[in-house]
Amino acid sequence: MTALSFERIISIDWSGADIETEEVDLGVALYDATEDALSIVGLEDLEDWSRKSCRRWLVERLKEPRPTLVAVDFGFGLPWNSDLAIFSVSGWRKMVSRLGALYQSYKTARATASAINGMPQFGGHGPYRIDYDRSDRHFYIDRQVGYYRLAELASPQAISQWYMGYGPAVAFHTITGLYCLDLLLGLRDQGVIDFEIWPHETISPDSSKHVLAESYPALTVPLLCPHCNAPYPKSKGKQRKNSSGQQADKKKKAKKKYEPKQCMGCNQLGPWIDPHDEDAWRVLASLVNAQRAGELAHLFRITQHPFGRYDGIDFIDQVKFEGYILGLG
Predict the structure, then answer these.
(1) Considering the chain, what is the average pLDDT of its residues?
(2) Helices (DSSP H) in the chain: which residue ranges?
(3) % pLDDT > 70, the chain
(4) How would you label 253-276 residue by residue, b for 16+ Cβ within 10 Å and e otherwise?
(5) Are 196 and 202 in contact (CB under 8 A)?
(6) For the segment 28-51, what is each residue's pLDDT rounded down to a tens digit?
(7) Residues paired with 224 in a beta bridge
(8) What are 11's strand-pairing partners?
(9) Domain boundaries, the chain
(10) Strand 37-40 and strand 68-72: pairing?
């Protein structure tokens, strides 16, 4: 496997809530290989904490010639056969475009999912599980579309791309994330930016160009102190204000109380101020550690397995449609 080493790595903790211009629970972390430095991206770089602002910032990075790996924690695809069964198109790219158009029309992920569920051909049995207690299996059986992708079947703690109930609701992220990919692909078609998406467009990425890939914080190594590399204790406290003033005016919805990570060894606090920054950092640190060790290419390995398969469909073809998660293989 060819060694990979990017000049820059970006990790984004995505959010599927609210509309594109609303401030949401985003977290962005960046590694600059030239300076060998990791940092949290704050309002000194972003206009605000909306997905629209984050996309603009990312587009500017992708315009630059420095090869960059971008890892984002939303599903880059849907279970096999979703293209034909739901959107009446063939192929991943056309499906992304169709879903992007629906989201642009309905403005929110919930409204988009509700509209898809309400399509007459589904007879009330759409794919999105919006109600927490819903156990309707008819869509998946009747349309031969799985509730999980191959990646979710192999990932402990993973949640279905169709789930929009209480707690972590992955489908919100997936809908807004695929809309984001559709916009980025449109800019690529116009020649504004250039990149490859793993594994949909390349199974073996090349670190001489920009690469976009799906990440999942739960699959990464435990968070370590960036000052002395010691592990942190478990969180049990309240959210703190950033005493340094960095990102002090960051406007986010405080849905959960957050305890700052304080190292028991060097007594230093981490550079993040909420769980979203922390997750972005956690993925970034794992990728950076792998690159420093010359093992980044191993995170792009895809291991074939027999479960969740379709008769007559090649494993790699299914993966290139559904997507995969960095480090899963």
Answers:
(1) 90
(2) 51-63, 82-87, 92-106, 109-117, 138-143, 150-153, 170-189, 275-292, 315-322
(3) 91
(4) eeeeebebbebeeeeebbbbbbbb
(5) yes
(6) 999 999 999 999 999 889 999 999
(7) 231
(8) 29, 71
(9) 1-233+260-328
(10) unpaired
What tokens does 309 get? Answer: 């398969």
Task: Determine the Cα–Cα distance for residues 329 and 327; give it in Å rounded to an integer.
Answer: 6
Tell me, what's the pLDDT at 152? 96
Q: Is the peptide bond before 260 cis (omega within 30 degrees of 0)?
A: no
CA distance 97 to 64: 25
Q: What is the mean pLDDT of residues 115-141?
A: 89
As a residue count, the chain comes to: 329
Q: Which two tokens stand for residue 130?
A: 């919006």
Residue-wise DSSP of 110-127: HHHHHHHHT-GGGTT--S
Give per-residue pLDDT as tens, 270-327: 888 888 999 999 999 999 999 999 999 999 999 999 999 999 999 999 999 999 999 9
Reading the block at residue 10, the tokens are 């970006």
Q: Region 207-227: what's the mean pLDDT? A: 92
**Helices (H), strands (E): how many in the chain?**
9, 6
Question: Residue 33 carries which DSSP code?
Answer: T
Distances in Å between the Cα of 44 and the Cα atoms of 71, 123, 185, 260, 307 are 21, 49, 27, 22, 46
Secondary structure, 3-state, 12-31: EECCCCCCCCCECCCEEEEE
| Residue 322 structure tokens | 């559904």
Q: Cα(first)–Cα(last) distance of the chain, in Å? A: 14
> Which residues have CB under 8 Å from 24's CB, separation 6+?
15, 17, 18, 49, 50, 51, 252, 253
CA 239 – CA 258 distance, rounded (Å): 4
**Tokens of residue 83, six digits:** 């293209």
